[in-house]
Amino acid sequence: MNAPAPASRRRVLLAAPRSMCAGVDRAIQAVEKALEQYGAPIYVRHEIVHNKYVVQTLEKKGAIFVEQTEEVPEGSIVMFSAHGVAPTVHAEAAERNLATIDATCPLVTKVHKEAIRYANEDYDILLIGHQGHEEVIGTSGEAPDHITLVDGPEDVANVEVRDESKVVWLSQTTLSVDETMETVDALKGKFPNLLSPPSDDICYATQNRQIAVKKLAEDAQLVIVVGSKNSSNSVRMVEVALDAGADSAHLVDLADEIDETWLEGVTTVGVTSGASVPDVLVDGVIEWLAARGYTDVETVKTADESITFSLPKELRRNLRAEADELSVRPTSPASQAQE
After folding, report:
1. How does pLDDT run across 241-293, given as a tens digit for each residue?
2. How far lies 147's CA from each of 5, 108, 123, 178, 272, in Å?
3. Distance CA 12, CA 311 (A)
4. CA angle 127, 131, 134 (to 5 degrees)
């Protein structure tokens, strides 16, 4: 167990970096810019990022989130989330005469391009990730005949490939680095010639936040991670904190979800947040803790982040005019055949 700080001193260790990464910031700005430029509604396929507060805030501004492309009225504008989509989704949008904005994180796009390249070279691709996650679905859709999902080390025993000399691994960008490398090591034990991608697929922001939470866990008895339960990187951070030595760690969307019993006997609280979380939610947690005597806040900095991404190129065009033009085009032969 971590040694507690002196009883008279209740402190908060605040991780840096934390909160929104460049890809998330870009995606949120893209929705806001589209609403400003084209007016409501702007349809978004799936949550633009995995954060309840962000989604609700954008809904109030006029964004409409849908699960399937068929829910978007023909001739409308639809945005694809930061997690990326499969080529079949682009085809569905074209079939419905939708003007599209692709807000896929550039780091996810990099993984998509790697999948396409290795598939073209006829490799078997072992995609490390979680079944059903939107990013995994999108990446798998780039090369469905070549990709096998590996959902952790326990899946490795069941993996089969056509040619053990032509196997490569890729991964979901929001995984725990330690978890991913454990799976990679297991795969290399089974396939000694396993090829690694040109660079690690775990995104810089995920890695930085996991390193920071490990540092917090060295001194914090309790770690609070701000993030939504469907946010893979936020969930992983709780696990990383516990593995790194924190006595307890919990995930909350908002400060009012914190249970005061978590503070019993705790003099040092670590606070961080997932890569989809706006800082206003972290500020709320800091204020909640301050009201309970945790007024000494120290920043624990483990990295600098200065990366930014430009907005999707589609926002430099008149998409509303394009949508209107698409909506009056004759129905495609493929559509007629389905009617």
Report:
1. 999 999 999 999 999 999 999 999 999 999 999 999 999 999 999 999 999 99
2. 50, 16, 9, 22, 34
3. 35
4. 85
Note the pTM of the prediction, 2 decimals.
0.87
**Strand pairing partners for 254?**
none
Residue bearing tokens 């660079």: 199
For residue 166, count CB atoms less than 10 angstroms from its CB and return exposed for 0-12, middle for 13-18, buried for 19 or more. middle
Report the phi/psi class of residue 326: left, alpha or beta, with left for phi > 0 and alpha for psi in -120 to 50.
alpha
| Residue 237 C-alpha from the chain's centroid | 12
Active site annotation includes 135:
yes
Of the candidates 150, 80, 142, the residue with the CA atom closest to the CA atom of residue 113: 142
Helices marked H in the chain: 22-38, 52-61, 87-95, 106-120, 134-140, 177-190, 204-217, 232-243, 279-290, 319-327, 333-338
Mean local confidence (pLDDT), 94-123? 96
- What would the pLDDT profile of 216-247 be if each residue is shown by its tens digit? 999 999 999 999 999 999 999 999 999 999 99
- Integer angstrom CA distances of residue 113 from 108, 110, 118, 224, 314: 9, 5, 9, 36, 20
Name the region of 76 (left: φ>0; alpha: ψ -120 to 50; beta: rest).
beta
237-to-156, 191, 209, 250, 280 alpha-carbon distances in Å: 24, 29, 8, 9, 19
Active-site position among 47, 92, 114, 135: 135
pLDDT of amino acid 55? 97
Sheet holding 99-102, edge to edge: 63-66, 42-45, 77-80, 99-102
